[in-house]
Amino acid sequence: MAEDKNIFFDSYELEQSDLTDLADLFKVFGDATRISIMFALLKQELSVGDIAERLEMNASAISHQLRVLKQAKLIKSRREGKNIIYSLADEHVVTIIKQGVDHILE
Q1: C-alpha distances out from residue 1 to 4, 100, 102, Å
Q2: 96 CB contacts (<8 Å, ≥6 apart)?
Q3: Longest dimension (CA), the chain
Q4: Closest Cα to residue 66, out of 57, 54, 75, 56?
Q5: Which of 66, 60, 75 is nearest to 31 (CA)?
Q6: pLDDT in tens, 41-99
Q7: CA gap 41, 9 in Å, rounded
Q8: Spatial contact of 52 and 62, defined as CB atoms under 8 Å apart
């Protein structure tokens, strides 16, 4: 009989691939620029140019980090005329950020 390798946590049953996906998600939070972008998006939706101006970085570097955040489903975008406007994907992202801040400030 094969050994069950699934991990159980509360009401969740996680497979190894789920754990890998979770580790990949946390890796995205391992970059200060990406954290700064998400902090900027906590308050309001912003374009690449707006984010670049606030973080005093070039738009190309911001676009690269936005692509990583979008692939991780942490932000979303919408078109407004010629601009792409970015925002946090959902309240889960806000919660993760707030929990992280609470943890480091303990």
Answers
A1: 9, 41, 44
A2: 29
A3: 60
A4: 75
A5: 66
A6: 999 999 999 999 999 999 999 999 999 999 999 999 999 999 999 999 999 999 999 99
A7: 31
A8: yes
Whether pTM > 0.85 for this model: the answer is yes
CA atoms of 77 and 84, how far apart (whole Å) = 6
What's the gap between Cα 54 and its chain centre?
18
Q: How far apart are the C-alpha atoms of 106 and 83, rounded to whole Å?
A: 40
Per-residue 3-state assignment (H helix, E strand, C coil) for the chain: CCCCCCEEECCEEECHHHHHHHHHHHHHCCCHHHHHHHHHHHHCCEEHHHHHHHHCCCHHHHHHHHHHHHHCCCEEEEEECCEEEEEECCHHHHHHHHHHHHHHHC
Cα–Cα distance for residue pair 73/76, rounded to 1 Å: 7
